[in-house]
Amino acid sequence: MDCLFCKIIAGEIPSKKVYEDAHCYAFYDINPQAETHFLVVPKTHLASANEITAENAAEIAHIFTVIPKICKDLGLESYRIINNCGAGAGQTVLHLHFHVLSGSNLGERLV
Ligand code: AMP
Ligand code: ZN
Questions:
Q1: What is the C-alpha to C-alpha distance for residues 71 and 85, in angstroms, rounded to an integer?
Q2: For residues 90 and 84, is the Cβ–Cβ distance under 8 A?
Q3: Ligand index nearest the alpha carbon of residue 41
Q4: Which of 22, 39, 50, 109 has the most CB atoms within 10 Å of its CB?
Q5: Mutation test of ligand 1: which of 9, 25, 30, 97 has the most ligand atoms closer than 8 Å to its C-beta?
Q6: Residue 97's CB: how many other CB atoms inside 10 A?
Q7: What string of DSSP letters covers 28-82?
Q8: Which atom of ligand 1 is found nearest the CA of 13?
Q9: pTM
């Protein structure tokens, strides 16, 4: 499949891995928007949050158990989780991903 993040998961395109297990992969964003900025993706290809269903929801819930563990390991007490769903919300890579941002430059505003 011609998907950037599927290729990263497969190791066909290099990435700076933060965490990996059977169901998800986390890696640093190539263009960080905060002091710490990594992405967490399900290993199953889902184009966006619009493709989350009752059948695959456990895989997404798993990601939300992994994020606190990664942040604890990285010593991050405060962080922001963002998902852009659809081009109008800024989604540029059509493989579901959650941005995790942390650092002193995070403001209180969401947009
Ligand atoms: P979004 O705009 O929400 O779809 O987020 C896509 C993110 O992927 C952006 O923050 C990009 O900087 C990031 N990105 C694109 N290509 C790579 C890559 N090869 N390795 C790591 N991050 C990437
Ligand atoms: Zn993919």
A1: 23
A2: yes
A3: 2
A4: 39
A5: 30
A6: 25
A7: E-SS-SSSEEEEEEESS--SSGGG--TTTHHHHHHHHHHHHHHHHHHT-SS-EEE
A8: 19
A9: 0.97
Ligand 1 atom closest to the Cα of residue 91 is 4
Bridge partners, 99 (sequence order): 39, 82
Q: Residues with catalytic annotation? A: 97
The confidence score (pLDDT) of residue 103 equals 95
Q: Is 48 in the pocket of ligand 1 (CB under 6 A)?
A: no
Mutate to test the pocket of ligand 1, among 93, 100, 101 (most ligand atoms within 8 A of CB): 93
C-alpha dist (Å) from residue 103 to 29, 41, 86, 94: 14, 21, 26, 26
> Residue 105 — very low, low, confident or very high, per pLDDT cuts 50/70/90?
confident
CB-ligand 1 contact for 82 (6 Å cutoff): no
- Residue 109 has a pLDDT of 87
For range 8-27, the mean pLDDT: 98
User: Would you state the pLDDT for residue 86?
Assistant: 98
